[in-house]
Structures are given as structure tokens and as C-alpha cells.
Design a protein that fits this description.
Layout: H1 2-8, H2 18-28, H3 30-48, H4 51-56, H5 61-81, E1 86-89, E2 92-95, H6 110-115, E3 130-133, E4 142-144, E5 147-149, H7 154-157, E6 159-165, E7 171-177
Parallel strand pairs: 2-3, 3-5
Antiparallel strand pairs: 1-2, 4-5, 6-7
Helix pairs in contact: 2-3, 2-5, 3-5
Length: 180
């Protein structure tokens, strides 16, 4: 589990993205935010908590929330709530979805980082920073305009992509297939 890996090791960094935001929104207000979350990955999340979670389904969102919170526990819930929006090193910043190419990373809105920005990838960055991101599915990993796109839609394509970025800024894309 990523929670335990990040807690126990220094080589793992998890970020806040739109699905984590939707999940936390559901936990805070199940009636208002539950349907949207369930349509956007929530059903799969519920299934990951075991068959009892499936039993609640969309019929009783408060009971489903309570069931999930009990399974999560306070430590994991605090971890989720406090996930950073950005991880940076040198001229590389990693975000979930995107960033306004006209602004420094430190001046980005939360929404840009978790949901993306219309000019992201369209306008080149002029500050020499490279933004590594997922969220938007690409056929093959790409590097252009200060953007490194690595989301090849593993949930649908069975291709999980990662980027190895070396200190000389050479980038190697690697992919794994489950073979299922």
C-alpha cells in the first residue's frame, strides 16, 4: 500500500489529485458529493474495501462513508488530507494534472494542479521547468513545451508508464503490462 510505503521509505512521494479530492469530498458530504465520486472511480474504491462495501452501494451513502472511514482509520485519512500538490527537484516538478504555463509552480491554484489548465501543454513554459503529469491520457508518453506526459490510461489500456529522469535531463519512458 502506498500509505505504508511512503511512511516507511524516503523514495516514494504521493500527490493529491482530482480523484483524492473527490474521495475526500465524499467523506465530508456523502449526499452532495457521493454520486459524482462513485461515477469517477468510487465504485472501484468501494470494491477495494471488500464485499461489505459493495453491499451499501449507492443506497445509503452515509453508511457507506462510515464503513469506509472505519476501514481507512485516522492515520490514512490524515495522510490523504495532507498529500502535497507538487513534488519538485531541480528543474522538474511533478503534479497530478497540469499547471498554468505562464505562472511559477508556487503560484498555481489547487484546481490547476489537480484538474489541469486549458493552456497546459499548449503554450511552452519559458522558465526552463519541466512539469511531469498524469491525469490526461496520451497514446504514448510525450515530452514537449516543458511538459512530460506519462498517463497511458492503465485502467483501460493495461499499460502503466513511468519516466526515469536523469540529472542530465535525459528521459527514459518505461512501460509495464499486467499481461492479463
Amino acid at each position: 500500500m502506498l500509505f505504508e510505503r511512503q511512511r516507511d521509505r524516503r523514495d516514494t512521494f504521493c500527490l493529491m489529485g482530482n480523484h483524492e479530492e473527490m474521495f475526500l469530498g465524499f467523506l465530508e458530504d456523502p449526499e452532495e458529493k457521493g454520486e459524482r465520486w462513485l461515477r469517477n472511480g468510487g465504485l472501484q474504491t468501494v470494491a477495494s474495501f471488500g464485499p461489505a462495501g459493495d453491499a451499501y452501494g449507492q443506497h445509503d451513502l452515509r453508511r457507506l462513508r462510515d464503513f469506509i472511514m472505519e476501514r481507512l482509520g485516522e492515520a490514512q485519512l490524515d495522510w490523504l488530507r495532507n498529500l502535497p500538490l507538487v513534488w519538485s527537484s531541480g528543474n522538474i516538478s511533478v503534479v497530478h494534472a497540469g499547471a498554468d504555463p505562464r505562472k511559477p509552480v508556487g503560484e498555481q491554484s489547487r484546481r490547476n494542479l489537480t484538474w489541469g489548465h486549458p493552456a497546459f501543454g499548449q503554450l511552452p513554459r519559458r522558465d526552463g521547468l519541466w512539469i511531469v503529469h498524469g491525469h490526461t491520457i496520451v497514446q504514448v508518453p510525450e515530452m514537449a513545451n516543458g511538459v512530460i506526459s506519462i498517463d497511458t490510461g492503465a485502467y483501460a489500456t493495461d499499460r502503466l508508464t513511468a519516466a526515469i529522469i536523469r540529472p542530465d535531463c535525459e528521459v527514459e519512458f518505461i512501460q509495464a503490462n499486467s499481461g492479463a
